[in-house]
Inverse folding.
């Protein structure tokens, strides 16, 4: 029998991790990515990667990492898989180290670790403040090695459009669009791994990269896959507001001692240096003495919101607070945080070693995603998912520096499991599933290309982003969520009148974007309606009308399925696996 | 009073075979705007300064944080990343052109695949035995990490190749980025197992000796890689390798 042929969609950490495992096990991979894989969004991760290596004599354990992760996620994550991830993490760090990631070192030549949010241990390995970039490059290099050996074929500049399903509903390949020639083509495979990252673009401006539209997840969702916990969206407490995006200011700035504050007096116009310590309100340190500036992200984000919108203490009346590093010496800052300080200086024009940074929360991470089983397989046989595009490792809130480890771990699971599935797969049921799917996609493309309406897709997208950011991020009210859903329904209707100002058949970015936009619109309803149904507050999901966690009713995974009906997705709830750690109240104002 | 505006002149080319034309755009000024946010604005309202409907600009971009390396182009004649090109710091009209040393795709989009091919040719990776658990990696002292980390910051934007007078079809020069990666992997305790292969790959035509020491690369690099230092180190290593290969016969 020929070696199993697996398609991996997405070349960030999760996708590349899967590719490496498959190639190593003798499989053949077709790797699809919109951008050259070395330019994937994983490069943006800054602060580090968690593993309980206990190299600082603190008695850290993988059990402690497991507990911090479950507790930080407000008990919504299935515990079996999280436990396995935390136990595998130290080995993953060792592997990355062997691959040549230039991690920061101790004087003895060992890995250095820093602190991060939601834990009291030094558990985060890091390479300056560009850890994601360094990790992605290490995996990219290993994949290039397999590419040189002919085990991996890259399709960079191709965008996934849909899965090809046979008459029994099993995946038999994909359709994809060549973003230069605009050629539509189907590719056969024995199994598919979706590793397409987060859905930031649904919120207009976010810390995510341009390609993070959730389009692939949405396409699979519309083909019958469950989308789970869509309502859980992480808003990072410290981002730099910008015209084109919100740039992340890493949690590592606080991990290395950064302090968040505002002047105690509203509208205090004095230069920063002239505000004495007693007149500075270090609200995180006052409200959460145990964790201080290193409370989990949802907690910090809500605190900043409160300071700005309830107490009216935003800097100069603007929605911004200080993130202050100026008490730390310049050399230490450059050694440990160089990359991110450079970003701030470049994009804001102010040296953060001299003046405190001005920051505000921004949409950052998608905890929810494609529903998968413990083998990383969706409910569509033969389609697996790994990384940010699936739902299972972070519950209701992700801890900082857990994303890189979950991406690599998820990819390492999905790869071998997809191989196993492919080896056992029977021959395709019925003929012509590829032709049928190509015909369906051709129809969509032709309709879009010839549409004569008055709507510009980029402007529709802005309206979607504004609605989502306003009603479905930090603070949620049912009546506003209802309004947001009505708005999305209106946008879906107006989408029918999309008129492309570019109708050419060569590198037509408007066309590709308009296809993504339809998928964004459909997926955004799972976020909004999922949030509406969940009448409680848990992790990143906060409703002032229901301020407490309600385990009796909502210690459950939300599962949305597509109906194609204007009433929106159908929702059901699934029990959460809590067999190892009994849910207990989550609070960060005291030791847990 | 009329609102403050920003003027752009953008070189458009519908396909590699099409003629190049310049289009002018006038956008409303907003605080903090950069070249990418300006092109997003044009996409939402694709009309030239003369009021003529046009198409959104085709260009590469992704992270918008100057770390993915996508959005390199020539801005007012200078090869740089568009996301970090703040409008307030640029002379107007702001002229946007594609990189000139790579095959044009459309408008400001070019094909830089040659850089990834070069990285494959020099085996820019650490040959690990496998991904199974083999314990911790080699010890690396902080001084060594500090020397290697800057080289590992290369974002493959290809600005160094664009500005290099020697990077052209005649020489077939690999360019500074690839040479810096050779230094990085030759420095690694495990990566150096391929040291000789890498040096031999850079010994012939198009190799390190094509460098004419113009030093444009190190000035253009948005990540301040020590490129000229890497080139001179690798030149020396290539020379030593050549001599030792000759002695061995």
């Amino acid at each position: 029998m020929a070696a199993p042929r697996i398609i991996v969609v997405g070349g960030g950490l999760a996708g590349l991790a899967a590719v490496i495992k498959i190639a190593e096990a003798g499989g053949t991979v077709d790797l699809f990515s919109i951008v050259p894989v070395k330019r994937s969004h994983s490069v943006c991760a800054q602060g580090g990667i968690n593993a309980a290596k206990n190299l600082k004599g603190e008695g850290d354990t993988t059990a402690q990492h497991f507990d911090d992760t479950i507790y930080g996620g407000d008990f919504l994550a299935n515990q079996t898989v999280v436990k396995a991830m935390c136990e595998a993490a130290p080995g993953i760090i060792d592997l990355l180290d062997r691959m040549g990631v230039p991690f920061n070192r101790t004087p003895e030549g060992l890995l250095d670790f820093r602190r991060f949010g939601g834990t009291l241990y030094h558990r985060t390995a890091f390479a300056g403040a560009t850890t994601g970039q360094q990790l992605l490059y290490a995996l990219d290099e290993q994949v290039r090695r397999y590419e040189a050996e002919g085990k991996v074929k890259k399709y960079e500049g191709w965008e996934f459009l849909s899965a090809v399903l046979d008459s029994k509903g099993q995946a038999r390949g994909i359709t994809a669009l060549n973003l230069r020639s605009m050629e539509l083509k189907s590719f056969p495979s024995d199994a598919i791994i979706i590793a397409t990252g987060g859905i930031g673009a649904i919120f207009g401006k976010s810390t995510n990269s341009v390609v993070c539209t959730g389009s692939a997840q949405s396409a699979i969702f519309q083909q019958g896959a469950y989308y789970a916990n869509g309502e859980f969206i992480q808003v990072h407490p410290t981002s730099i507001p910008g015209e084109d995006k919100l740039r992340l200011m890493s949690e590592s700035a606080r991990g290395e001692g950064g302090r968040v504050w505002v002047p105690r007096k509203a509208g205090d116009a004095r230069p920063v240096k002239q505000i004495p310590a007693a007149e500075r309100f270090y609200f995180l340190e006052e409200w959460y003495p145990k964790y201080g500036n290193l409370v989990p992200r949802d907690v910090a984000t809500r605190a900043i919101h409160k300071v700005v919108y309830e107490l009216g203490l935003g800097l100069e009346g603007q929605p911004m607070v200080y993130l202050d590093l100026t008490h730390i010496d310049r050399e230490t800052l450059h050694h440990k945080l160089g990359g991110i300080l450079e970003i701030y200086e470049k994009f804001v024009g102010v040296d953060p070693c001299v003046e405190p940074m001005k920051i505000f929360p921004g949409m950052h991470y998608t905890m929810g995603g494609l529903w998968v089983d413990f083998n990383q397989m969706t409910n569509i046989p033969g389609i697996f998912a790994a990384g940010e595009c699936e739902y299972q490792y972070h519950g209701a809130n992700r801890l900082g520096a857990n994303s890189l480890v979950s991406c690599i771990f998820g990819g390492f699971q999905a790869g071998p499991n997809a191989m196993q599935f492919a080896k056992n797969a029977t021959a395709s049921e019925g003929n012509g599933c590829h032709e049928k799917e190509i015909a369906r996609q051709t129809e969509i493309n032709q309709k879009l290309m010839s549409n004569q309406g008055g709507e510009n897709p980029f402007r529709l997208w802005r309206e979607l982003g504004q609605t989502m950011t306003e009603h479905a991020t930090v603070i949620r009210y049912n009546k506003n969520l209802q309004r947001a859903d009505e708005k999305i329904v209106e946008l879906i209707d107006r989408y029918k009148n999309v008129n492309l100002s570019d109708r050419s058949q060569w590198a037509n970015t408007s066309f590709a974007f308009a296809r993504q936009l339809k998928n964004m619109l459909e997926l955004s309803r799972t976020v909004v309606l999922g949030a509406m149904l969940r009448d409680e507050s848990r992790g990143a999901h906060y409703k002032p009308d229901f301020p407490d966690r309600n385990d009796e009713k909502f210690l459950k995974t939300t599962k949305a399925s597509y109906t194609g009906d204007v009433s929106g997705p159908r929702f059901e709830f699934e029990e959460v696996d809590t067999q190892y750690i009994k849910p207990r109240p989550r609070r960060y104002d005291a030791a847990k | 009073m009329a609102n403050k505006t920003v003027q752009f002149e953008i070189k458009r080319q519908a396909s590699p075979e099409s003629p190049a034309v310049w289009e002018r755009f006038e956008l409303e000024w907003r605080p903090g705007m950069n070249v990418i946010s300006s092109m997003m604005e044009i996409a939402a309202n694709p009309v030239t300064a003369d009021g003529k409907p046009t198409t959104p600009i085709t260009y590469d971009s992704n992270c918008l944080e100057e770390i993915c390396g996508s959005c390199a182009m020539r801005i007012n004649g200078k090869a740089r990343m568009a996301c970090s090109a703040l409008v307030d710091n640029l002379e107007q009209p702001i002229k946007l052109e594609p990189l000139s040393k790579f095959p044009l795709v459309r408008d400001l989009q070019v094909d830089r695949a040659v850089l990834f091919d070069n990285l494959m040719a020099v085996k820019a990776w650490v040959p690990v035995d496998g991904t199974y658990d083999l314990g911790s990696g080699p010890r690396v002292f902080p001084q060594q990490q500090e020397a290697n980390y800057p080289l590992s910051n290369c974002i493959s934007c290809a600005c160094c190749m664009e500005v290099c007078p020697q990077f052209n079809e005649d020489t077939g020069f690999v360019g500074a980025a690839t040479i810096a990666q050779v230094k990085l992997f030759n420095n690694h305790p495990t990566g150096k197992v391929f040291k000789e292969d890498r040096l031999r790959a850079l010994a012939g035509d198009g190799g390190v000796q094509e460098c004419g020491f113009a030093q444009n690369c190190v000035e253009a690099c948005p990540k301040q890689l020590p490129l000229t230092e890497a080139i001179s180190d690798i030149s020396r290593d290539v020379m030593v390798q050549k001599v030792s290969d000759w002695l061995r016969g």
